[in-house]
# Entry
Amino acid sequence: MSTGALRAHLLAARLAGTVATSREESLRSYRLFAARDPRVTLGLDPEWGWGERDVMALMADKCGVSDDPGHVSGPDVIDPERTLSGLDAFADRLAEVAARRGPVLFGTGHPHRLLGFYADLADALSAAGCLVLTPAQGRCVDITTRFGLRTYNLDYVRGVALVREPGPPSARRETGAHTHSPLPVRTALEGVLDGGWPLPELVVGDHGWVCGAGQLGIEAIGVADTDDPALFVGEAEGRVSVAVPLDDAVRSDYYRPLTRYVLNRACLSQ
# Structure
């Protein structure tokens, strides 16, 4: 897929341009991040002092959102050129780890939207000779949610980690649960050490998977929406290698052109 065609797709699918994430949601996240609320820091412990205006200025630079504090409502905006630049850097990191045939860990807190995107990348890296890690499968992860403490199980689908509610398949969501928590990646990395797996050279994902890995000193790349400032702060502070700005909650099939673009740039076959 050409850059021009992908740009048009980003805008048509509202992956960039005017997105579904509201300005109110984004501003709320910036306030909570400035207050170091763990629901928004996603496992990152910021080294710098980040006030709300600082976070807004960073997100304007990284995503293209408005830096006007008086702009408080309506849909938010992502600059498609920044998305394209992020996808190029994302693909370049995949190409580098593929050239070394390094071990890679994939994980998502958005399995109902992004599972297919990551799974296709995992298939391509596996075909290139990389070890796609699947440690600690089935291990329990206790995550605090707005409904209280809940226990999930770490699982893998086509090499991509996610968490599921325990119980028989008929009683749980097929694609897994939505989470921002860094605890799943910490559990997976504990499983790496316990099971004698090699440490991942790269973690690929979103939310707590990226920030949690980056905080532990493992290279991480991922995608993030305008209300996920932690990944962009991690990138600014040098603990996240690449944060790609895009809407992370559109239809799953809308990410397929991104897969083709990334794999083509990385010279990997799908």
In short: The first strand starts at residue 17 and ends at 22. The chain has a mean pLDDT of 95. The radius of gyration is 17 Å. The chain has ten helices and nine strands.
